[in-house]
Amino acid sequence: MKNLIRTTKITMFGLIFLITALVKAQIIYKDQLETIYLDKNAEEVVYTNNFSDFNSDLISANTINFKTEIKRVKENNSYLLFLSERSNLEISTTTYLKIIRKGANRSADNKTFKLFLKHNLPELINQFNKDNNLEELYIISRKNTFNGKIDALPSVL
User: Fold this and answer.
1) Does residue 12 form part of some domain?
2) Would you say 47 and 87 are in contact if contact means Cβ atoms under 8 Å apart?
3) How many domains does the chain have?
4) Sign of CA dihedral 94, 60, 67, 139
5) What is the predicted pLDDT for the residue at 42?
6) Per the domain annotation, does 104 fall within a domain?
7) How distant, in Å, are the alpha carbons of 107, 124, 152 from that of 138?
8) Which of 66, 67, 90, 153 is 20 to 30 A distant from 105 in Cα terms?
């Protein structure tokens, strides 16, 4: 009888340990997995991409005053669309401007800015890899952020 109880306890402990190990393994690798597409077409067919047009408009303005832009866009209540065969994304222009501002403020260079955008907008990873305007967007955006203005100050030392 003692052996049966002992065997049952060991079996239950083993099962609980196995289940918690599996759950923790799923949590650890959840962020590292990417979507795998099983079709022959390697290129993503894009139907609508308002993000590139909006980035071009910001770059052509040559300066971005984020406070004014966010206020103007908030009044219009506009959205940016990205529609393709693989992903659909609709995000408010206000949120996108805040992501750009936050990314430019926290990034020390163009590569970090690009990684920040890829992390916050994973649906657009392929488009960010193709987009050549992100470096210009970073330079223009960085000028009007807090850390960008501090970097522009002359060194006292």
Assistant:
1) no
2) no
3) 1
4) positive
5) 58
6) yes
7) 9, 17, 15
8) 90
Rounded distance, CA 34 to CA 31, Å? 8
**Structural domain harbouring 122:** 46-150
Residues 50, 95, 139: CA angle, nearest 5 degrees = 75
Helix (H, G, I), strand (E, B) or coil at 44: coil
| 135 vs 109: CA distance, rounded Å | 9
- Angle, helices 50-61 vs 134-143, to 10°: value is 50
Q: How many helices (H) and strands (E) does the chain have?
A: 8, 3
Residue 26 lies in a domain: no
72: which 2 tokens? Answer: 């103007």
Query: How much is the CA Rg of the chain, to the nearest whole Å?
Result: 24
pLDDT of 13 = 86
Q: Is the pLDDT of residue 17 over 70?
A: yes
Quick count: other Cβ atoms within 10 Å of Cβ 70? Answer: 17
Specify the pTM.
0.65
Number of other residues whose CB lies within 10 A of the CB of residue 100: 26
In the chain, what percentage of residues exceed pLDDT 70?
83
CA distances from 120 to 4, 29, 96, 99 (A): 54, 18, 10, 8
Q: Which amino acid makes up residue 11?
A: T
Under DSSP, the state recorded for 124 is: G
Query: Is 106 contained in some domain?
Result: yes
